Amino acid sequence: MNIIKRPVMFLASRWWLVLGVALVNVASFLILFSLEGRFEHITGQPVYDTQNDLTTSTLLEQLPLYEGEGRDAYNLFALYDFVFPFVAALFVAVTLTWLLSKNTFPIAQKLHQWNVPLLTFIVTIFDWLENISILTVISYGATAPQFWLDNAILFKRLKLITLNISFASMGLALGFLVVNLLYRRIGSKAILLENNPIEGNS
């Protein structure tokens, strides 16, 4: 875990590093969807990976699209799709770590100490497993074993569930920080009025 923890903690230590990670994440999104756009231009369909309602039957129906030029375009997409999930998870982990580090509530500090933001890399694992399953199905073609078809759908569902949890946790962490900042502001103002009662009454 230290292999991931150290760079995350370093990148979350300065606001401009967090911003840099966010910009890299945006660039990564643009590259990924550019590669998907190339595939869609050739085949008229989005890649399996971005079809959230994908089923085993539609997976098999669309297999002919993953031949010739379509296969070449998808291979480029798939290659980069092993990089993109890590970059995206890094962005979420760094952002969560930064938000928690700025929050003085004890529960926020505990979550920070327990390295909870690192759990977002579970999404990356599910995404990689989905990629492996889809590539295996494509390599088999119409004779793909049911095991790999089911795995492609299973890992997609798990990826989407954990991805939604990750994004929701960012929203919660941001809201929790806002509450903390308001609490600290009100608390500091109360202390100021207590120390300067005449000024507070004027």
Query: Class by helix and strand content?
Result: mainly alpha
N-to-C series of helices and strands: HHHHHHHHH
Helix content: over 70%
Shape: elongated
Q: What's the count of strands?
A: 0
* Poorly predicted parts: none
Mean pLDDT across the residues is: 93
Cα end-to-end separation: 56 Å
The number of helical elements comes to 9
Portion in beta strands: under 5%
User: What integer value in Å does the Rg equal?
Assistant: 23 Å
Sheet bearing the most strands, described? Answer: none
Q: Could you list some keywords that capture this structure?
A:
single chain; 202 residues; mainly alpha; 9 helices; elongated
Structure description:
This protein has helices at 2-11, 15-43, 56-61, 69-80, 84-101, 106-113, 121-140, 146-195, 197-201. With 202 residues, it is mainly α. Helix 7 (121-140) runs antiparallel to helix 8. The model has no long low-confidence stretch (mean pLDDT 93).
Brief summary of the model shown:
The chain has 202 residues and is mostly helical.
Task: List strands and helices in order, with pairings.
Elements: H1 2-11, H2 15-43, H3 56-61, H4 69-80, H5 84-101, H6 106-113, H7 121-140, H8 146-195, H9 197-201
